[in-house]
Amino acid sequence: MRNRRYINRKGPFIGYGTEGAKLVKAFRNIPRVEICNVERLNLLKLAPGGHLGRFVIWTKSAFEKLDSIYGSFENKSEKKKGYVLPRAKMVNADLARIINSDEVQSVVRLIKKEVKRVPMKKNPLKNLNIIYN
């Protein structure tokens, strides 16, 4: 990044529901700990830089509110109109089994075992032996 000599690492993220003021006061002075209400979640705080895997601590009330805000695969969201959780693109996540299956392997071309080596192009201005041979 430009003009950044040192980059501070992100600490844990705490998502809370109803226990607002007490929790914010408890964690506000701890460095690199971010606190956010479940109703005001920010994707860049949950996954900074688009990288998944930040350590997130959810309170019990926050976990219960998540279902009412975003819904589940069975129920629709109560607070967001017409919002449905996104489904996975792949039904079967075992990619190795799909690639090695007979249906896929019958269509895929064979591996080329012979490697064609391209001869090295030599510069005649530097290698005078090429000119005279």
From TrEMBL:
GO terms for cellular component: cytosolic large ribosomal subunit. Keywords: Ribonucleoprotein, Ribosomal protein. One of its GO terms (biological process) is translation. Pfam families: Ribos_L4_asso_C, Ribosomal_L4. The keyword Repeat does not apply. Residues 81-131 form the Large ribosomal subunit protein uL4 C-terminal domain. It comes from the Eukaryota. InterPro entries: Ribos_uL4_C_dom, Ribosomal_uL4, Ribosomal_uL4_dom_sf, Ribosomal_uL4_euk/arch. GO terms for molecular function: RNA binding; structural constituent of ribosome. Belongs to the universal ribosomal protein uL4 family. This is Ribosomal protein L4/L1e. It comes from Helianthus annuus.
